[in-house]
Design brief:
Layout (H helix, E strand, L loop, with lengths): L2 E6 L6 H9 L17 E7 L2 E7 L10 H16 L2 E7 L6 H10 L6 E6 L4 H6 L12 E2 L8 H10 L5 H5 L4 E6 L5 H9 L17 E7 L2 E7 L12 H16 L2 E5 L8 H12 L1
Parallel strand pairs: 1-3, 1-4, 4-5, 5-6, 7-9, 7-10
Antiparallel strand pairs: 2-3, 8-9
């Protein structure tokens, strides 16, 4: 199962540059103007044969009344809750700031692995200046330069070693079927019909299932795991922060399943998003 890693930090510390380097892409917009990343970007990376999903979040501003900055703060908090590991990026050029302290205080309350990473360390003087970040109270840190890649190897070594393997899934050698499709096409109703019980919440409200739900289905002398997932919308419609991470968990469900059962609404017909979901499942 793919782990989700969130890159968080205040604006303009180099999060998007690091995201692009680790995903080997130019997917995130990189600009010296503070606050370019208003939304999240996600991509895939691997290190030493271990794959993981990477999230580039918007910059964190604690007390801003600007609506974008308020939403960015929500993204960071949800990233802390929903990711498996966190890269907290700071800038050696400015040293620890009040905003860095705000983020560090949030991170001190989580039990997720946190990797304090000091960016823009590209000479011996800046190596010494990095020592200031011990004051954030997060312990040891990694010194990197996201532009030229120096130091990222050590960071990635520690990052992937922190991933927890799901031993229960490894022990249960049972086929896994992911039930996927657009919101409100009847995925939960289908699972409930198979189980003959109302285990999953079923309403007419689009997007009721926020998380993935695993259920062992035992019939006809066979056991399988049914994975009911949140609906997949077009990217342009993924406004809600929680829904964004629901999409991430749905992608993870597809990745760890043996079979994808794609539910399509016969009334609305086969639409472009149905085709996108099919292509995603086929790719995985």
């Amino acid at each position: 199962m793919n782990n989700i890693v969130a890159i968080i930090g205040r604006p303009n510390v180099g999060k998007s540059t690091l995201f692009n380097r680790l995903t080997k892409s130019r997917k995130a917009i990189v600009d010296s103007f503070s606050g370019v990343t208003r939304d999240r970007h996600y991509g895939y990376s691997d290190w030493n044969g271990i794959n993981f999903t990477l999230i580039d979040t918007g910059g964190y501003l604690s007390d801003s009344k600007n609506i974008f900055d308020i939403e960015i703060k929500k993204q960071v908090i949800i990233a802390i809750n929903e990711s498996d590991a966190i890269i907290f990026l700071v800038d050696v050029e400015t040293g620890p700031t009040n905003l860095d302290i705000d983020v560090a205080q949030l991170l001190q309350k989580t039990n997720k692995p946190v990797f304090l990473t000091v960016n823009k360390v590209d000479n011996s003087i800046r190596v010494k200046e990095s020592l200031e970040f011990y004051n954030l109270g997060l312990g040891d840190y990694f010194s990197i330069s996201s532009i030229n890649g120096s130091g990222t190897g050590e960071l990635l070594d520690s990052l992937v070693s922190s991933f927890k393997m799901n031993n229960e899934e490894q022990e249960l050698d049972i086929p896994k079927i992911a039930i996927v499709g657009k919101p409100n096409v009847g995925k939960s109703s289908f699972v409930n019909a198979l189980l003959n019980e109302n285990k999953n919440i079923v309403t007419d409200i689009s997007g009721t299932t926020r998380d993935t739900i695993d259920t062992i289905y035992n019939k006809y002398g066979k056991k399988i795991i049914l994975i009911d997932t949140a609906g997949l919308r077009k990217k342009s419609k993924v406004f809600d922060n929680l829904e964004f991470y629901s999409v991430m968990r749905t992608i993870r469900a597809i990745e760890r399943s043996d079979i994808c059962l794609i539910i399509i609404d016969a009334i609305n017909g086969f639409k472009s998003q149905d085709l996108n979901i099919f292509k995603l499942a086929k790719k995985k």
